[in-house]
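ok so I'm stuck.
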Amino acid sequence: MRPGLVIIHVDGLSYARLRIAVDQGHMPFVARLMETEGYEALAYRCGVPSTTPFAQVGILFGDNSEIPSYRWWDKRANLLVSFGSGSTFGRVAPNYFAGRRPLTQGGACIAALYRAGATDRFGPSYEERHRPDEPDAGGRAIAAFLLNPVALYFWIRHGGLALFRIASEYLQARFSGRRTAEVYVIADIYHEVLVHHLTRFALMQAMDEGLPAIYACFYTYDEAAHAFGPTDPNTLRVLRHIDSTIRLAAERRRSNRAGLDYEVVVLSDHGQVETTPFRAADGRSLGQFIFDWLPGHTVTEHRGQVFRHSGEPSAGRVEVTYSGGLAHVYFADVAGRLDYETLESRFPGLVSKVAALDRVGIVMLKDHQGGALVTAAGRFSLGLPLAAETAQLLERFDAPEVLAQQLRRLNSFERSGDLVVFGAYDGKHQVNFEDQVGGHGSIGGDQLHPFVLAKKQWGFDTSRVTNSSELYPMLVELRDRSGSLSTSN
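replied:
not stuck anymore, here's the structure
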């Protein structure tokens, strides 16, 4: 039998949550893989920012340079770059990953944020997906799904139960006073009731067609965790649905119509932590504070409001982008990233005012000594060798030397904000700039520690992985090793 590789991406599930889910019986098939088929769960560090666009493109291309968050402001293009609904990444996509060979080239990339050189079956679209010279494979997958009576039966049965369960959980949470994120409750319904089934159908279809490398991303757990929290009973029940999908893919490893012998890898891109809203204390957002401190400026929050002085010409334009527990602040009228000294000269005291907010953990800035971190306690150097006081500041988030390296890399991106603001983290809860119950994108806790579920015989060693892009060569080697074994046989 010819070999193939299937990668199942479970969005937002940390290594620690995976272990708990297996131990508590929420993922019985994954437990079986570990007990009887030689699989092991391996933790790795995804890098900073702990967001899907950054981590996923590292896995698919081995390069996540200049992806500073889920959404950011591109000063050169004068454009908000974002993913998901209304994605604009396609307008700047040609500037990225030049010369990189994608993991799934010649295969299928299903429900991913990037094309990855593969047949694009279904998923969150951006403009590159709709080039007129390429067939609408996503539309064909949806049509095939709707014409398949077995798929429709299971969709209607599970979809109805899931809709009832999510609505019940939402009502129970409201009546008991537990926090929910309404926008993500709707997203949770959309992904579990519809998107997950379409993605699974496209995955099975690709396996039956014998495509050699297949990547499929399932977002349901991440959306449920945003809506209700990563430890909520509803969120944990979602893992049974994901476990069932992994089982179906595993059962088709050797029973697919194409006669391929697939290896199956399961992985995640980041984890989640419980959050506290930035606005919880007084209803004010970060953009509103900046507006108050910069007279005459127009401040636009992406995932927020626009603040401007009516009847007065604007003294400048500030774009603030939010991605979970991470915010980027851009002075859009000024080309390039401003360094610490320039910021202090142009906007005296602004950095220290942002850093002094009790809901802000760290403000990161560019400078001429390797970067700077500013907190309410003062300024800390990110330069090498790492200063003892900087290591002490970072140790509550993760291993200081590793985290400092990750922060330096993010701070080297030209598309990072003039101010990079991390929400405060107390070891359990993260201050979030978006309205989410569970969040990520920042530093600290499970969000930095996803997993790879792999066979021991493959020899994966993730203990020194500090960036998702370091998984790419391991997966490429597994893909190519299977091919060479097939050729030799």
